[in-house]
């Protein structure tokens, strides 16, 4: 995944050499067609995600933000002065402001995101709100090696990975990503990570299939992106959004379901769809606190603290590099 950094294409002629071309061709060639969820986040997708975070049905954002407000003093007490705060998948960096308010003595804030528009907007806003804070944005894949400017390389590092973006990875990939973060954050490193909790399907499904259709638009936007950037000919009206709960795997799945039999042309290939056949676009794993702790420990972290809300909807964990 480390080549996904710059996916904006000059023209459709460049499409075949795009870093995402092979990933998309591979995904659509599988018996269960799939697309990786990082493709959601072009400029339009990042805006739609922000809209999702404000939906009444989408409990994770407001719940995690409220937990962070409560936890911020304790998080600050365990963050050494002069540390670098590294955020993985920072998006709009809205929740970051809660931590930054409590952490006036950081050496720098280093957000990493694949969305150029989200990263640029957030960096500009934070620059205005925290004029003395050094902001070092990185456009790219958070699973690539972490590179900080030489002057900061010996500073202690605290990672921040909110939003339950870890849930968008299957457990084995999530463990690999957490191991990668442990390495990148170095000796004495800490990680503040948001993890959505398993709950009743009657709450989960509306969170991923809201009444106003914003999540549907977010899911379908991936096809618009493939049309624009890879010259595909998806008719967006010919697919519908579906959120499914996979109880055996403990995850919500998002699919785009073909409304009828059709063929899609993309980069010189034809992809046939039966009526009802889907493209699997996202997994969102939901954990118990014990399950997530086990995963984090497998990846070399020790769990120091966990905070939840009263309804046990969401959790925020403070992990330290294992001894
Ligand atoms: N942290 C924010 C945004 C979560 S949305 C919040 O909690 O609300 C997930 C974010 O991760 C998006 O901004 C998306 O662009 C980014 N993202 C997804 N996969 C990524 C990857 N592999 N590398 C870097 N950023 C990624
Ligand atoms: C970013 N990620 C954790 C979100 C989630 O809940 O899995 C993305 C999302 N997909 C649909 N709604 C929100």
From TrEMBL:
InterPro entries: EgtD, EgtD_Methyltrsf_superfamily, MeTrfase_dom, MeTrfase_EgtD-like, SAM-dependent_MTases_sf
Gene3D superfamilies from the UniProt entry: Vaccinia Virus protein VP39
Stored SUPFAM superfamilies: S-adenosyl-L-methionine-dependent methyltransferases (SSF53335)
Domain Histidine-specific methyltransferase SAM-dependent: 22-319
One Pfam entry name: Methyltransf_33
GO biological process: methylation
Keyword line: Methyltransferase, Transferase
GO MF annotation list: methyltransferase activity
PANTHER family registered for this protein in UniProt: ERGOTHIONEINE BIOSYNTHESIS PROTEIN 1
Protein name, per record: L-histidine N(Alpha)-methyltransferase
């Amino acid at each position: 995944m480390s080549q996904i950094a710059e996916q904006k294409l000059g023209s459709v002629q460049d499409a075949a050499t795009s870093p995402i071309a092979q990933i998309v061709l591979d995904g659509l060639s599988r018996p269960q067609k799939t697309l990786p969820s990082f493709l959601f986040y072009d400029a339009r997708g990042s805006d739609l995600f922000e809209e999702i975070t404000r939906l009444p049905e989408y409990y994770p954002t407001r719940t995690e933000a409220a937990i962070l407000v409560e936890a911020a003093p304790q998080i600050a007490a365990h963050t050494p002065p002069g540390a670098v705060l590294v955020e993985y998948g920072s998006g709009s960096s809205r929740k970051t402001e809660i931590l930054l308010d409590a952490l006036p003595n950081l050496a720098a804030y280093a957000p990493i995101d694949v969305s150029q528009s989200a990263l640029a907007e957030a960096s500009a806003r934070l620059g205005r709100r925290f004029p003395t804070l050094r902001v070092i944005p990185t456009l790219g894949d958070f699973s690539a090696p972490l590179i900080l400017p030489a002057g900061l390389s010996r500073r202690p590092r605290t990672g921040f990975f909110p939003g339950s973006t870890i849930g968008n990875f299957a457990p084995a990939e999530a463990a690999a990503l957490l191991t990668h973060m442990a390495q990148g954050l170095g000796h004495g490193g800490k990680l503040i990570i948001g993890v959505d909790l398993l709950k009743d399907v009657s709450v989960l499904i509306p969170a991923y299939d809201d009444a106003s259709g914003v999540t549907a638009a977010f899911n379908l936007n991936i096809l618009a992106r493939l049309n624009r950037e890879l010259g595909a000919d998806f008719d967006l009206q010919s697919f519908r959004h579906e959120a499914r709960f996979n109880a055996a795997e403990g995850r919500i799945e998002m699919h785009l379901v073909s409304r009828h039999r059709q063929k899609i042309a993309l980069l010189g290939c034809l992809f046939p769809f039966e009526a009802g056949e889907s493209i699997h676009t996202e997994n969102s794993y939901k954990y118990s606190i014990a399950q997530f702790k086990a995963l984090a420990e497998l990846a070399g972290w020790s769990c120091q603290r966990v905070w939840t809300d009263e309804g046990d909807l969401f959790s925020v964990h403070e992990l330290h590099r294992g001894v």
